[in-house]
Model the fold of this input.
Amino acid sequence: MIIVVKPDATEAEVKRLIEMIESQNLSVNYSKGTERTVIGLIGDTATADLEKIQTNHIVDKVLRVQEPYKKANRLFHPDDTVIDVKGRKVGEGHISIIAGPCSVESEEQVVSIAKSIKASGATFLRGGAFKPRTSPYSFQGMGYEGLELLKIARRETGLPIVSELMSLEQLPAFEDVDIIQVGARNMQNFILLRELGKTNKPILLKRGMSATMKEFLMSAEYIMKEGNDNVILCERGIRTFETATRNTLDLSVIPVLKKKSHLPVIIDPSHATGLSWTVESMTKAAIAAGADGVMIEVHNNPEEALCDGEQSITPEQFDKIMTTVKKYAEIENKVL
Amino acid sequence: MIIVVKPDATEAEVKRLIEMIESQNLSVNYSKGTERTVIGLIGDTATADLEKIQTNHIVDKVLRVQEPYKKANRLFHPDDTVIDVKGRKVGEGHISIIAGPCSVESEEQVVSIAKSIKASGATFLRGGAFKPRTSPYSFQGMGYEGLELLKIARRETGLPIVSELMSLEQLPAFEDVDIIQVGARNMQNFILLRELGKTNKPILLKRGMSATMKEFLMSAEYIMKEGNDNVILCERGIRTFETATRNTLDLSVIPVLKKKSHLPVIIDPSHATGLSWTVESMTKAAIAAGADGVMIEVHNNPEEALCDGEQSITPEQFDKIMTTVKKYAEIENKVL
Amino acid sequence: MIIVVKPDATEAEVKRLIEMIESQNLSVNYSKGTERTVIGLIGDTATADLEKIQTNHIVDKVLRVQEPYKKANRLFHPDDTVIDVKGRKVGEGHISIIAGPCSVESEEQVVSIAKSIKASGATFLRGGAFKPRTSPYSFQGMGYEGLELLKIARRETGLPIVSELMSLEQLPAFEDVDIIQVGARNMQNFILLRELGKTNKPILLKRGMSATMKEFLMSAEYIMKEGNDNVILCERGIRTFETATRNTLDLSVIPVLKKKSHLPVIIDPSHATGLSWTVESMTKAAIAAGADGVMIEVHNNPEEALCDGEQSITPEQFDKIMTTVKKYAEIENKVL
Amino acid sequence: MIIVVKPDATEAEVKRLIEMIESQNLSVNYSKGTERTVIGLIGDTATADLEKIQTNHIVDKVLRVQEPYKKANRLFHPDDTVIDVKGRKVGEGHISIIAGPCSVESEEQVVSIAKSIKASGATFLRGGAFKPRTSPYSFQGMGYEGLELLKIARRETGLPIVSELMSLEQLPAFEDVDIIQVGARNMQNFILLRELGKTNKPILLKRGMSATMKEFLMSAEYIMKEGNDNVILCERGIRTFETATRNTLDLSVIPVLKKKSHLPVIIDPSHATGLSWTVESMTKAAIAAGADGVMIEVHNNPEEALCDGEQSITPEQFDKIMTTVKKYAEIENKVL
Done:
């Protein structure tokens, strides 16, 4: 961390600022230029309380040199994290294919989709029981019953299940869900993150609609700080000015997050564009770019889907995509 | 709501689509053009489940004519909503000045600030007890103790208090808080909104960082649908590409939200720019633009603030701003 | 085009509006709903002057059904456009690899890079002679001399050349340039587009930093309207709130632009992220997503580059990328 | 400027880097921390060529301390710039009201509007002769004839005229235009800016749709570097995710640009929101926030306007706005 001092600060003021910094277990490196005076902070600035420094009246700017996250930081954890979910590995050389309906609608629906996607090569079954909807008048999901139907589909196919938890009081019901999803709108629900950090569940953390990659990693850090290192990062499109797609899929997260962090990175093309006819193209792009997997909405009858049918593909379309994905995985030496 | 049918749809397909729509208690108005066929929906489209229509394979586009919110809609509620908070009115000709520290730090701090701002003309005291922070290593607020200190300050000054609720389990502790604030990161925490809708508390709902005005009103609708009409809308800056300010304050919400809705609109310049030296300018702009009030961070010693000192102004600066605000209120025939 | 009439319009007013529309060679389809009255326009709305309609005081909303571009529209031109550049084809099954330095610096530099990239499989040589720079104090390119050096490199390698034209008065000097690039900042320099439309040169049109896909296609339409159909669309990153990358590469343009238009789509990963270490990942993603090619900055000595060295890769890195790209092209049945 | 060196750089490498920097007439201040080594640059970094430094392989980050503009920088020019346009002053305590039609349509139209706005208190007449339009099928302005009609209106009213120049070859025709406007789409047309810098005309420079304030000031710097200091900055809305307004008016530019620069700042509410019914609210906000003026579209018959009628107000509405603006100006001690 580097502090740029205002040009008109007196020597006495600079001295007091340095003493205050040193009282926080940091050393300083002081250098006086012709136009600006600069103070470098030496020590663990990630956990220090730096608010006081930033608001000191002689401070012009504070420039961060080091990233503010520690546990999610590849600098302190050079090897890729591999998460084990009932024997299936997520990360480092493994491609995870999470597929299933936006929302669970009936036993028949979810079991039939689960069987189809398994036959095509999916490795996880996703399905929403609790649905965050923009309008209070839209279908809000089957709730606890939906979770039970997912478990039935798991029993029938052996696919581990992924479902979204919307609120803390639902946590006990997710005891037997294999991967707990935190939705984009909850990415900065810090109390929720903290409590999930106290479990040892794999957490699929979705990037907030307008979260920077740094904030995304800080939210992972909230979970990891409490002791749960099983965090899977999931990009699902960010909000931009473009309206041709629902959101803008930011595939550059793949090289960037993988450079800055050791956590697995999954891409959700379905929510990103909101357009089923782009899913094949975006899935192939995600795998080619180096993602550790994708999360795709598949519905046996998208026109009748109670939620987000517009972005769901059919089992047949999913099967076709999987054929190419397997070829790409081979080129990239990855295990599907 | 208007449905544009794909050019290659057969008459039989169009007929089936119309039947499906009519089964939802909507009538249709069918018009066949040379290039496109268009179906108009007549009836209450706000509460109908329209997902099925959108994903029908012969549907090209669905164009909304009417806004998807009802209770928050000025169309169905032409008069301004005025909210009574312990005898103080929010909305329609009343300017509410909510001021106080970002976070409550001690009895001495909050009482002393409360007295200062009251003397300058503030009408509500704000103070954070639970603080949503991007980093798990930052100060997270005093919690329940903070709420108690706010109540002491209220007793000393008579100012009603505003504080942020971060999670549902904190709700009982907010029984005696006068206005419950829902933060920007919780604007789409739908379960929280629903529960707040079951209380009769005034809710200050902050706009999400990347929420459109329509989504903002839909979140108000979540609260109002459950029976609580006491919603105050608060703009606090949106996320854009600009980095000179922390967020971009969108003052155009004032004329737009007031045209579309009957709810009061408050502006928070402090969080919007994150720069204390812009607060005076932006506060005056908010009042001139027709806001029903502002929410300003005031700290007796911004340099020592445990949170967001960079954006806090001093009681002296606040007093100076209030002097101009009063003149503006007079020109606009508003009561402060 | 659909017009929603305000609820309080009188029948006489609606009648006058309809007459005005009909005076523009459009027919109307009138439907009166219980809440809203809707007028559908039938005929060629793309070229009609619709401003008058939009501002009529009884008009509430105007909803576009058809895209406002004609020549760039796949609806009226179902087959892919293939552009022939000195015998090399751009579009439909051909992958074009455009590589070279950000800016031409010397004969030795550009010839040596051209030879390297050709050996690795590049099909076009790019190099900037005129450089749009944010700061007036930065290197502005070699100008006309740079164009001459590019031609020397073309003579030595046979690679057709691509270079950016910044202003109309430079046009004569681009007579012998094979593809004229229009930079992102000039995407809406309409006078420039119109003049380029009067040539028969292939134009590589870069998407503006904050241009929607619709505006992008409207700019292509400006060129095509004058008679030049040789337009290549190039995505180079859009401006968003994210700062980890210079811009956000929007790969969803590939399926979307290809659905809406018949023009070839090229991706520029170098300018999009501004980070050389992401170029491999993003190039593979672009090819996998179905792009007709990529445009990559290659410099023999990025550290000494006079411009944008941060985003340039070395000839060795380029060679490695090309090896994978060839495998992907094979899977996708495309010719490199 | 501060350089953060990668942790694994050798002492010899750091030495070579320092020598390279010193060869550019800069001194360095070297400080070795426990985790990071930092080099501070002392001297005039604004005009030095820093690309070489940024791409040196041992450099991790480069952090700018000083703004990259000099002539537009308040640091080097503490007093407000006041621009004299035919005896009327723009900047520092003067409020300039620029009003008129989006585009000049006829002598009668522009003269009649000019007379009305003058009577209400406008100080400049605006009118477009050359119109940048997204669609090639929209009305493109009257061209040179439009300029002549503006001059007639000036003769009739005495109001100095403002009009937009779209391309360099139009420059001779603007000899007798009082303020030359550079549109948002041309804000980074660097060749145009450079040539305008060689004139002594007042330039009204509009902010690009997605330009940061820093880039905005860099474009002013392009003009000023050539010797023309008469630059007026004009905010006209930036592009964000919000669609309720055409753009998002960023009024925070007023305090921020005024802190960083000495140039006058004008607000264009009409283009910012694209909604005539927001103009009153946003104009009052601009004046209250400290703008040096506003630029407002006024049309005698918005419904018949050939361009942007949706955002134009009538002379009667303009007159009403001016009444309040005068009261605000008085409170702020400004001359209208």
